[in-house]
Design a protein that fits this description.
Layout: H1 4-10, H2 14-22, H3 26-33, H4 39-51, E1 55-60, H5 68-87, E2 94-98, H6 111-129, E3 133-135, H7 143-153, E4 161-165, H8 171-176, E5 184-188, H9 203-219, E6 223-227, H10 231-243, E7 252-256, H11 261-269, E8 274-280, H12 285-294, H13 296-308
Parallel strand pairs: 1-2, 1-8, 2-3, 3-4, 4-5, 5-6, 6-7, 7-8
Helix pairs in contact: 1-12, 5-6, 9-10, 12-13
Length: 309
């Protein structure tokens, strides 16, 4: 079995991407995890998911913004997506997730301010459509900027959510800063290759950190978004919610598109709020490979599909 580090390295390889696309069953497998390359495809998949009683958060894929024009185009795509969701009557059940790197945060000395301005414009479009925005988290070097951006914009958009990654050693402290009323926090394990100095590497340590952070969020005054496919953590989340006296509409579960769909339906059928993370766009490859790296079952599924293809 390929190691996680090898897979994450493959996420940066143009040659590996061409091999996936060229493989007989490659495109069909990609479509299990990615809605498509266009806005219309993303809205169509959102419509199907909402019809099943699920909610959605859409991510326009692309982290390697190379200039200000590219950053502006990404922001414009999000604004257009939000209008399309509103026009389709889906905005009340579908929000968007955005990455600062896609909006120009890495473009030199003024990149952070450029990205913040684009996030503000996306938030304005979301507010006009009647929905919300969540700031995705990236590698550990982006954590401070992401949290600072969220804090600066929440004065105007108090519903602006943020993601925290429990494999980072700092995350329990960050959770304590986000326990106030209205704070929307998506809690994930994390999907980037990080050094030992800043991240837990052992699975058990990451899980223990997840539970500690989850307990804080459930006992706080905000809105926890429990992003995991782990059955044990899902059960713990439910128990912590009951212990904290939270009704089912005071938190939600989040899962990736194409992963554990039976569990998504089971939770929704039990009255839980379940939101599906739905990516789309032409820059799908790095996202796809990270999904393979996270779970050996995903890689086995991919291998079987290629053989069948």
């Amino acid at each position: 079995m390929l190691s996680r580090r090898v897979l994450l390295a493959a996420a940066r390889s143009p040659q590996a991407q061409r091999a996936v696309v060229a493989a007989p069953g490659g495109r069909a497998v990609v479509e299990r995890f990615v809605a498509g390359e266009t806005r219309d495809e993303a809205v169509a998949v959102t419509d199907r998911l909402v019809a099943r009683g699920l909610r959605v958060t859409l991510d326009h894929l692309g982290e390697d913004t190379v200039d200000e024009d590219h950053a502006a185009a990404v922001a414009a795509e999000y604004a257009g997506l939000l209008r399309a969701l509103d026009d389709a009557g889906l905005a009340r059940r579908a929000e968007v997730s955005v990455k600062l790197s896609a909006l120009g945060a890495g473009l030199g000395r003024d990149g952070a301010e450029l990205a913040r301005g684009h996030v503000r414009a996306i938030c304005e479009a979301a507010q006009a459509a009647g929905t919300t925005v969540t700031l995705d988290m990236e590698g550990h070097t982006a954590t401070d900027l992401t949290l600072e951006t969220a804090a600066s914009l929440r004065a105007t958009f108090p519903w602006l959510g943020v993601v925290l990654q429990t494999y980072l050693r700092r995350t329990e402290s960050d959770c304590r800063d986000l326990l106030g009323a209205g704070c929307r926090v998506r809690l994930v394990k994390g999907a980037y290759a990080e050094p030992d100095s800043v991240a837990y590497r052992e699975r058990d340590a990451v899980d223990r950190s997840y539970v500690r952070c989850l307990r804080l969020l459930m006992e706080g005054q905000g809105y926890p978004m429990v992003a995991t496919h782990d059955p044990r953590l899902i059960a713990i989340a439910g128990a912590l919610a009951v212990r904290a006296g939270r009704p089912q509409d005071a938190y939600e579960f989040q899962m990736l598109y194409g992963v554990r769909e039976d569990e998504q339906r089971r939770l929704a059928g039990a009255g839980e709020t379940v939101r599906v993370y739905l990516p789309y766009g032409v820059d799908w490859y790095a996202y796809f490979v990270r999904r393979l790296a996270e779970r050996p079952a995903n890689l086995a599924f991919f291998a079987r599909a290629l053989v069948r293809g």
